[in-house]
Amino acid sequence: MNAELARIERVGGSLCLDFVNTRTSHFDPAAREYLAGYVDLLEWLRGCDDGLGARTATQLAAVARAHPRRAAAVFARARELRDLLQRVFAARAEGRAPTPADLDALNREAAAALAHRRLEPGAHWHWRWDDDDALERPLWQVLASAVELLQHGEPARLKQCPAPDGCGWLFHDGSKNQTRRWCSMRMCGNGAKVRRFQQRKRDAGG
Ligand SMILES: [Zn+2]
Known about the structure:
The protein has a single domain (3-203), classed as Jann2411-like domain (Jann2411-like fold, Orthogonal Bundle), CATH 1.10.3300. 53% of the residues lie in helices and 7% in strands. The protein contains eight helices and four strands; from the N terminus they run ααααααββαββα. The protein binds zinc ion.
């Protein structure tokens, strides 16, 4: 596994937001990417609670090895999807609607992804995906998560780690009083505290 990937924090509270947060910052033009290629995408998704099972991940890795060019094309689409979702959720966190172009793109992507769901009967019926060998499977899962969050997530709990001290990561604030401000204290909150402390010291002439 690549070293960046092993360090990544999943603090978004949902699969689609954790996917959006796969670069170190949304504000810093020199931000680093955590996912370098399709196999990283699989590894990352395997590490998510509602991500990929080990068997499917291994199977898809084999398909990717057999079709490297197709896997690279899917990974390029995944990057575009990541940027699209970043814009859509950042707008929503600010109480804005997405641009018409982004809404169109999201509609196209979501409709195509969700067309691969099949109802599976059982004590409780559930959705499954129609094709375990499709390289697009990670994109479908991310899109299903995004649709779910847009439909059922509480808008006031969708937040963005704030500029200038924060990183722009998006997260669902599940705290009781909705007081969460940072993606995580370790990554952004502590740095902001230190900077505020130093500023106060400077202001006090200390
Ligand atoms: Zn942050």
